[in-house]
Amino acid sequence: MNRKLCMALLCLIMTSFCRAQSLSLKQLSAPDSVGLTRQMPSLANDIILEYKLVGDKKAYLNNLFRLQIVAGKYADAIATISSIRSASRADGTQYPNLLYKQFELFAQAQIDQLVTGNSFNNTFDNLFDTLLKQLDDKSAQYIYFSFTTRNGVNELKSDFQKSLVSTVKKDNLNIDEAIALCNSYLLLQVLENIDPVARALFKADDNRRYIINDSVFIKTNDGATLSGVMVRRKGIHTPQPTALMFFIYSNLERSLYEAKYAAAHGYVGIVADTRGKRLSPDPIEPYEHESRDVNTVIDWISKQHWSNGKVGMYGGSYSGYAQWAATKHMNKALKTIVPYVAAIPGQGLPMENNVFLNVNYQWAFYVTNNKYVDDAINNDNERWENLRNKWYTSGVAFRKIDSLDGTPNPRMQKWLRHPSYDKYWQDMVPYKTDFAKINIPVLTFEGYYDDGQISGMKYLLDHYKYNPKANHYLIIGPYDHFGTQQGGYPVLRDYRVDPVALIHTRDLAFQWFDYILKGGKKPAILKDRINYEVMGANVWEHVPSIEKMNNKTLKLYLTNIKADSNYVLSDKQPIKRGSVYQEVNLADRTTFNNDYYPDPIIKKQLDRSNGLFYISKPFDKPVEVNGIFTGELKAIINKKDMDIGVVLYEVTPNGEYFELSYYLGRASYAKDMSKRILLHPGVMEIISFSRTRMVSRQLSKGSRLLVVLNIDKNPFAQVNYGTGKDVSDETIKDATEPLKIWWGNGSFIRVPVME
């Protein structure tokens, strides 16, 4: 640990424990990390004495064994880990016998060191080497990231130091905070000691199991060079199918891990880098070459002596996009794709429904600054937050945002030249009738709270639209962008996810490969084409199509009838035409409009400083909201355009707001994303929308639906001033008079439900 920082920190010891399980802390100076190491066991010991089982036994034991190791009670910790494994075998946890193996071996090595005087490194080396020789390929690959750091020990040090700095500012520390501090400390201590030993042994073990080539080069027809890694299982002499991931986030350790995972599961593992990345000498131009380059890699694979001519692709986000890009020009060797949270450039990012988003601004630097990724610049949250706020308050044109940052962003500038979903974007992935030619099986993974869900679902919807017989399956549940790729988190943005929703995405992908490429069994979860977890019901449902997810569609009108602080969201069409007036001062930068983002998913209260709120009557029985909500807005405005936000909530009987889905889009592109059609000031316009997030949620009796209608004006996206000019060129000077809207009471939403 950094000595200078340690000298500045206050070390903590516990002097008393209150009934409310809050720690009273005495402040002592710690001259160095030795003093800190002396105090942490004392803190952990005292917590153990008072820590009681309340609620989840597994969570209690999970914390307990960590506290026991910090306290030096190594034998107790091993016994606690054994108890966790026994419980895990019963609940279907993956590889239960390997659960927390890194902590167990660490504790065993500590015991041996105390008893025999042997060095920790020698003891741990022997223990871990023995373990690896007992494991099969899949098990050895499964534990890799348990024994190694993903981003280095320095990141763990930084995390612990931040936790410590936060802790010393408090006079009283509750037990959860104290446990979190001990857990952070333990993780650092364990991985700092075992990571170097484990890496060396993993490397030796890999050489025993696999043939590894980390410098594969593949030439494209236009003279570019692509790089990749290849891993094959030793002792295999017959041609094998290949599992391919196409990757822009170049990282040799991650690429080798993915390729070894594929080899451990009976495939030749190939991870290929996007043009210009890692060992490729060419320019880095995201999205612009994948439709050809991925097929070049597939063609190269099919001609190798170890290939049986069958290739399956998998992976998330950009890698998901690359799979769909490959289907733009189908290669006969590509037999299936398994995209998770796949992006569509020009639709889900860097713009959503033609509204450019600031969240994608730094991504261009992240992936193009060097041959790998620029984590430092991507993680500079203060810089990007300051840039967003500076741009928003200044009112300068969106096209000049990089001038405020002081660093040109040529990739973003190129994207801004294509505000419509034009040929530039259309050439990157299948478009319209291209989908009719995609006859390979597809398995899509998506999440209700994936920021880019509209992209992943667009692929599926268009595949079915243009190829009604498409062999396309969907698995979707309460996951965000990264959670979908892992199979979910127990707690997502403060929402405790149903236990049944937690799955193993990568394992399911390879079960699918076995099914398609080797004639194995279909994954058990795929009981029909559309497989979705019902939030709140803790069950998976299975139907042949999205339309079959519901048996009724609620058509709810946004009326002009007041109901306390809301308007009525009615299932009856208003008899008399009316409207609700909204005025938005686009020049006012002291306020934000459209708080649509679902973080947290469940809110105690909503910001009611702006926007319009429409609430339904309570449901008289439980009902599932299942599918994609759509709507039609009728409005008269005094300008030529506006950016609209519509958020759909469940209002629970206890008054909480559970966010179900939302829409963000530009009115002038509502009819056609590839062609801008400006609105006519003073004329009633009909603005339809459908590209919202798919969701499934069990609503209880007494719950109500709430719609929040607003104009998008905040630091997170372009501000549309409504002049009709390219929005990227508009400035705050174009605000002139406020945006005035008369929302017609004939506006409605359609909510698909299962009763």
Report what the structure shows.
It is a single chain. By secondary structure, this protein is an alpha+beta fold. It folds into four domains: 3-205, no CATH class; 220-345 and 428-547, Alpha/Beta hydrolase fold, catalytic domain (Rossmann fold, 3-Layer(aba) Sandwich), CATH 3.40.50.1820; 352-424, no CATH class; 550-754, Jelly Rolls, CATH 2.60.120. It contains 22 helices and 31 strands. Strands 18, 19, 20, 21, 22, 23, 24, 25, 26, 27, 28, 29, 30 and 31 form a 14-stranded mixed beta sheet that branches. A hairpin with a 2-residue loop joins strand 14 and strand 15. Helix 3 runs antiparallel to helix 4 (74-90).
Q: How would you name the CATH homologous superfamily of the largest domain? A: Alpha/Beta hydrolase fold, catalytic domain
Helix content: 25-40%
Number of strands: 31
Give the overall form.
globular
Determine Rg (CA atoms, Å). 28 Å
**What is the CATH topology descriptor of the largest domain?**
Rossmann fold
Q: What portion of the residues fall into strands of 2 or more residues? A: 25-35%
- CATH top level label of the largest domain: Alpha Beta
Low-pLDDT ranges: 1-21, 24-32
